[in-house]
Amino acid sequence: MIAVAVQGLFEKSDSIGYDAVFQYIQLLDIVGGDNVRIFSERYDQERYSDIKIYPISELIQSDLADTATIIYHYCDGWQEFDEFIAKRRGRTIVRWHNNTPPWFYASHNLRLAERCVKGFESIIDLIRIPNIEFWVNSKFTARQLDALSGGGTVSSVVFPASRYLDIRSERRISHVRDGSIRLLFVSRVVAHKGHSHVVELAKFIESKLNRKVHVDFAGRHDSSSSAFNKSLRDLCEKSGASVKFHGEVDEDRLRELYRNADAFVCFSEHEGFGLPVFEAMRCGVPVIAWSRTALNELLHGHPLCFDQFDRASFAAAIEALDDPAVVDEVVVLQEKLARAYSRKHVRAQLTAALNGGVAPAFRGVTASRSTAALRERIERRAATLADESIVETAIEYGENFVTRHDIEAYRSMLALQTAEPSSAIAGPRAELLHSRFSTIGGEPSDHGIIIPPRDIERHVVFGPYMPVARGRYRVTFNFAVPDLGPVVKLDVLSNGVNLLAQKEVKLGRNRAQPSVVFSVFSEVEVLEYRVRIITPAGAETIFKGATLEERAAMRANRRKAMLRRISNLRAKLPFVASAAKKAFREGDVYRDQGNLEGAVAAYRRGLALVPGSFAHIVQMGNCLKDSGNTLEAEEAYRRALKLKPTDADAHLQLARVYSKIGNTELEKEELLAALICSPAALQSLKMLEAGSVEVGDAVKLALMQRVLH
Questions:
Q1: CATH of region 181-340+358-385, choose from 3.40.50.620, 3.40.50.2000, 2.60.120.200, 3.30.930.10
Q2: pTM for the whole structure
Q3: What is 423-551's CATH number?
Q4: How far apart are CA 263 and CA 288, in angstroms?
Q5: pLDDT score, position 664
């Protein structure tokens, strides 16, 4: 019996899950249908309706646990299954697609860096078990395995499966261009895939060739890596190039992107195989790549692929594609490469690995006189385009192997980051910005993590992994909530496992800042704060961050709250309320007469008696703004927003203050805040966009209608 084991079979685009299913289907034919089963911890049977998936518990708890040959499609973080296979006696094959080195994440997301380190540590533990063998996805990954083990690890190369294995290579019809260049890259948007290098190349081409470049990126963002996503967005804006992130797209849309591309560019800094490159070849798109890691062996002989990262060479290669004869030559050559990576070849590798045989070698293309001449032509042109400007984004060179020296060094660094008392909360209060939190299922933005109005099966917000000392604390979660708010569960965890406190609460406009009180008993603990959606909202909810307070600050806040209550009670006394109303009426009269100075003075008298009158604070801010006193106007609007943080009009008025003083960044920030605080407006724009109305056109139409009314 052969048992194929994979942690997840539920995502729309999951290369590991697809590979596991492909191998399972091939094995049904190779060894017989009664002798193969596929097991998973989390799966969607409807997504894989043509196969029978068994729960992983049936494998672990049955006789198969010791008797079956298990092909384990490794996924870092599945500790329970790692421990299970470490104890079993039967034949175990670990199918490994390589892991991302931690240095790609260490500068912006320590949690992801630690996960990378744990992944390699788990592989090292598996290498130490004598009866475990490895199936790897390329010779590069086999060499990475040897770098971890010191050599001698038993491994077989079995290429990963692609859904494009069964399609015939296309010969696209060339289309007339307006002189612009359209580049495409397909991949998850993560730090090591080289998206930033594509953007920099687009900027380089526009500068050197005086050609407009359009860049299309298809693939889902890693929403837990908000700092990287922001840095990439900032780079795109700074470059001035036309860059569009399409996200995760369906098959029809992806094929359309391939059809419209002039070139597929891949500057990935770490590839165990590089499936999108071969998929682009099968779609007839010329590929331009930085051929390193696994791509170095798989693209051997391709004239538009380069060992060194050199923008001038890439730009010259793209320019060469203006010649239809060059495009035809490259596409014909790519067809040979794509045919070599075939279902037949992968099946032969799989059969050889299962039976201990020797798989057929994968060979690239042999350079002809014509391709050699094309390469020389590109190199001559590159020499004229070369300059000495530095590549702005960090770039990885070398073979990129992770050694045990690297793992030990990063483990020590991470231990210092999470256990150093000086990293703990400084002072009685700390603001935890939303950008420090991670998300799965939400969408990071400049103003918070946008939580969609749908069921999410896991914690949607979590982080920021900050150490605190022993003491009593309160964490306050800050949300912008629609009329129909969600029911959320708020957790406080210590060191990733210990639940210190939990609270379930129904959010609403008057309950948008729920708090959880908890105690820390050890000297230094790393805390994590989580938000889980129990019942979705009627519209988008925005997580805007959290505030952490020590007990002393909690007492001070209680004193402030008591003083506010006293002030509110005082404002209700008949003679106080009457005097305040009189002052506010005077202010309104002065305002209508255009006496802005008199209006401000009257509003101040009223607010001295009733300091919590939100409407009159805003009116005072309006008069200050209109009279040119922008500094005090800003203070007034900020004061108002402390009372009502989600008031859209107050944010809009504050944006107008920043517009007056020319602070465009803060103006944009407040305008976006005004939009976020208007769920109905956001939902309307979203529905209009779904109806093929551009957001800019929608705003113009709305303004026109308002004028007419």
A1: 3.40.50.2000
A2: 0.64
A3: 2.60.120.260
A4: 7
A5: 78
